[in-house]
Amino acid sequence: MENLPNCPQCKCEYVYHDGSILICPECGFEFQAEDVQEKVYKDANGNVLVDGDTVIVIQDLKVKGASSSIKKGTKVKNIKLIEPEDGVHDISCKVPGFGSMYLKTSIVKKS
């Protein structure tokens, strides 16, 4: 089975070939495979991040509704890189002692 990219417009995963172009059955968008570029996620030091990496928080972070903050040096394992819904936070992870939350790539470094 060929690994085709998701539709760049509606993110549908059921894209199919029609000759030399790709077509999305949900929104009808037609595009070339070369038009789709994978986003590269980089940490504060410029290292490329991938799903499953372990990162370290590089500054203290205040958490709304919590009595304490995430301390500098906190190790976060098994991150998941996401397309930011709010345009800012692009890491989904579980921070020890705080639970599930979103972080920015600019405040972590790869360990």
TrEMBL record:
<comment type="similarity">
    <text>Belongs to the YjdM family.</text>
</comment>
<dbReference type="GO" id="GO:0016787">
    <property type="term" value="F:hydrolase activity"/>
</dbReference>
<protein>
    <submittedName>
        <fullName>Phosphonoacetate hydrolase</fullName>
    </submittedName>
</protein>
<feature type="domain" description="Protein YjdM N-terminal">
    <location>
        <begin position="4"/>
        <end position="32"/>
    </location>
</feature>
<dbReference type="InterPro" id="IPR004624">
    <property type="entry name" value="YjdM"/>
</dbReference>
<dbReference type="Pfam" id="PF03831">
    <property type="entry name" value="YjdM"/>
</dbReference>
<dbReference type="InterPro" id="IPR013988">
    <property type="entry name" value="YjdM_C"/>
</dbReference>
<feature type="domain" description="Protein YjdM C-terminal">
    <location>
        <begin position="42"/>
        <end position="110"/>
    </location>
</feature>
<keyword id="KW-0378">Hydrolase</keyword>
<dbReference type="Pfam" id="PF08274">
    <property type="entry name" value="Zn_Ribbon_YjdM"/>
</dbReference>
<dbReference type="InterPro" id="IPR013987">
    <property type="entry name" value="YjdM_N"/>
</dbReference>
